[in-house]
Please model this.
Amino acid sequence: MVDIPNVKDAEPIPEKVMSEVVKLLSNGDLFRYNSEGSAAEKLEVNFSKIMGTQYALAVSSCSAALFLALKSLSLPQNARVLMPAFTFAAVPSSVVHANLTPVLCECGEDYRIDFKDFKKKIKSADAVLISHMRGHTSDMDVILSECKQANIPLIEDAAHSLGTTWSGKNIGTLGDIGCFSFQSYKMLNAGEGGIFITDDPELFAKAVIMSGAYEHNWMKHQGDQVYFKKWQNKLPLYNLRMNNLSAALINAQLPELGSRVQKGRLNHDFTAERLDRSPWISVPAKLEPEQRAPDSIQFNLVDMNSTEIDLFEEITSGSGLNVQIFGRTKNNARAFWNWQFLPETFELPKTRKMLMTACDVRLPSRLNLDECEAISEVILSAIMTIKSGVAA
Ligand SMILES: Cc1ncc(COP(=O)(O)O)c(C=O)c1O
Model:
C-alpha cells in the first residue's frame, strides 16, 4: 500500500505562469488599474464566460465578495440575513461586517439545510445567504421558491462549490449574486482571493465602486455605464481589490478547472464508496440534481461513544492522517457556538449533534486513487481496531 499522502498541501500552480509572474515582478504592474487589459480584468472576463454570467468582479477574498454582495443590496441596518449554521466563521462575520444580523438555520445529518427551520425563519428574514458548506448543495429548488415567495434576495456562498452544478446550472449562478474563494484550500489556489458574479447590472456597478474602483476606474470593468454614473461618488470605497499577481495565478489554473473537478469527484466517490461499507460510518449521498466538485470528504461516525471517538481521532492522527471532527476540536471556526461575536445566539440541537460526529478529510484533486485507498484504509482500520476492542 502507498504511504499516507500529504493532504495539507494546496493545489500546485502550473509552471507556465512563471514567465508572466516574472514580468509582473520586473515591471511592478501589480495594481489592477495601472494598465489596460490587466490580469484582473482578464480573470473577470474569463470567469464570467466559464460561469455563464454577465459580470464578474475579482476581489481580495470570498469574505470581501460576500460583504460587497450584502452592501450592494442596500439592506437597512440590522436587517436579518438567514444562513445555514454549518459554515465557516468568516461567513456570519461578513454579515456582521455589513452591519446586518445573521440568523442561523438548522442543518441536518446530511450537512444540508433543515427546511422546517428554514421555512419558519425566512418569514422574518430580509435576505438569504446560502453557504454551500464543503460543497454540499441544499435543495436549491426549494430555496429559490421560498426566496421568491418571500420576495427577498439570495446570495450564494460558493467558496467550496466551484464546478458544482444543480440541474445542470452552475452553483453560484442560481441566486442574485454568487461568491467564490481562491484561498489556498480551494479548487483554484491564489493564496487569497475571491470573485463576485451576477447578472444584475446595478448590483454589479455598486459592488465595483465599493470594491475600490475610484474616480472612473469602473471603465476598466464589464457593466453598464448608466449604473456606474448613477452611483458615482455616492458609495464608500472599501478597497477590496484583487492584485494582478493573484489574478495571473488564477488565470493559469482556470484551464485546469474541468480536470480538477473530474478528479476531485472521482477521488471523493471512490473514498465514499469504501468508507460507506462500514456499519460505523455514514457518508450522506448527494441530492439527485447535484453534480459535485469536491476537494474534501465528510462522513459521520455512527454508534460510537465519546471515548471511541477520542480514540478514533488519536489513532488516525497517529497514522499521519488529519481527520477534523468539526464540533470536537477546541475553538473550531466551523462550530457555531464559538461565534461569540454574533449579536444573537441560537439553540440549534440538530446542527450541534451533526457537528459532534461529522468528520472532515481533505482530498485534493492532485491525489491518485491509490492514495485515496490509503486514506480509506487508515480510517477503516482505526474503526476496526476500536470496535473489535483491540485498542481497549
Ligand atoms: C464556506 C466558506 N465560505 C466563505 C469562506 C471565506 O473565504 P475567504 O477565505 O476567501 O474569505 C470560507 C473560507 O474558507 C468558507 O469555508
Summary: The chain has a mean pLDDT of 97.
